[in-house]
UniProtKB/TrEMBL annotation:
Protein name per its UniProtKB record: Glucose-6-phosphate 1-dehydrogenase
Annotated metabolic or biological route of this protein: Carbohydrate degradation; pentose phosphate pathway; D-ribulose 5-phosphate from D-glucose 6-phosphate (oxidative stage): step 1/3
Gene that encodes it: zwf
Keywords attached to this entry: Carbohydrate metabolism, Glucose metabolism, NADP, Oxidoreductase
PANTHER family documented for this protein: GLUCOSE-6-PHOSPHATE 1-DEHYDROGENASE, GLUCOSE-6-PHOSPHATE 1-DEHYDROGENASE G6PD
Enzyme class: oxidoreductase
Binding positions (NADP(+)): R44, K150
Chain positions recorded as substrate binding sites: H180, K184, E218, D237, K342, K347
Top-rank lineage group of the source organism: Bacteria
InterPro entries xref list: G6P_DH, G6P_DH_C, G6P_DH_NAD-bd, NAD(P)-bd_dom_sf
HAMAP family attached to this UniProt entry: G6PD
Amino acid sequence: MNAATFVLFGATGDLAQRKIYPALFNLYIDRKLSPSFSVIGLGRTEWTESDFRSRVEQSIRTFSRRPAVNEAELNAFLDLFRYCRLNVAVPEDYEQLLELVRKREQQLSIPENRIFYLSVAPELFETIARNIQESGLGSVSGWKRLLIEKPFGRDLQSARALNEQLSSVFAEEEVFRIDHYLGKPMIQNLQMLEYTNPILQALWKNQYVANVQITASETVGVEERAAYYDKAGAIRDMFQNHMLQVLTMFAMQLPRHSTAEDVADKKRSVLASLRQFHKEEVIHHVIRGQYTSGYIDGKPVAGYTEEPGIGAASNNDTFIAARLWIDNYFWSEVPFYIRTGKRMAEKSTRIVIEFKDPLDKYSRTNEPTTPNLLIIDIGPNEGISFQLNVKDANNDLKTEPIRVHYAADQDDVPEAYENLIHNALVGDPTFFARWDEVELSWKWVQPILEAFEDKANNFVPLHLYEAGSDGPEASRGLLEEDGFHWWPAL
Ligand code: BG6
């Protein structure tokens, strides 16, 4: 099994509390952690062991999808945790850490398998990686792995520089770049859906598909992340990573063998086939927006520039919609519309596949029918729906659309972080972004960034949209130009 030491940088942070501890807890409950497993939390704060464990406990009680009902089990879980104060820039602190890691390895008979999870600002990645190497923490007789959170760079050049720094310490197969959208069960399910359903396999191509729409809308605003978000915007925060990863997972051709390597090769090939925009063309295919004040669930909310920490003159994007094409044999000439935004009407991540209407000409009525749709709901609720047409029972000349819907039992669905941490522990990189994918996605996004930043030519205007709406009017225009419209969620 995965007998290992889980070394967590950023143990006092928000992500650890909300996602990482609950994920470890659920893996523990599901017996997916080895009995020989230790967690070492690291942070700058002076915490005692008991401070740390009560934080972990509180995080589980607040955020775990399963309540911690069995006290004995919860205590046994908490017993896996140790805390070590560490300043990432101080080499002596790593020596102390190594001592603790070894002590626990001996106590729990854990082989030298170490996973380093960097839930910290990316500026610290290089310092930490270097210190892991120089302290001897990374010299193991078993395996070592590095798990890192986004953002992986802020453009093509910085991503390359970061990769170079990390690769002097960790080999590519030891680096697990987290894109938590790849951990969502419905994303992990896409390949299986296609493999096991020949009816989908047969239709998943340009011959039958009119367009594909990928939406990740959120109702939350910038929250307490102004300093980061105002520099990143929706393009870096969601689009370059999550949205393009969802696109590749959907559009890749099924590999003959399903090894992680094959999957990454197929994803790479989708990214390499994306039609590249020139900076001057971006304005025709990309809409950027920013929310103004409005109402979410009936409650008034502030506009982006009134949010704490955001300047009144900020022209950062909180919404992006793009039309793009994958110039390969299967998808050529099928437009893909992708949008993501904050403070929109609903929280929903979904893929909608709109089918062509080849039978129209045989229709007895000459009335247009509603297109067939396949809707894959990725979150917050998971499901699959088909929109089909049936004859109106009371009118021979009319059809009406019906939806056939499957909804997953949400109590039973693991969270993205559970899947990803487990995948990393067993050494399966399938649902992580390989370096060449990250590089290609930055390469594709680069002219968009440049067009956004070219204030002198005002290449890409910033469209305002009201909080609680579907985003700027201009994003509807993008589809209307092609005779389509955004399909709403169910
Ligand atoms: C994160 C972004 O990666 O994804 C956030 O930084 C965003 O801004 C979040 O809110 C959305 O994730 P999910 O799983 O809630 O769709």
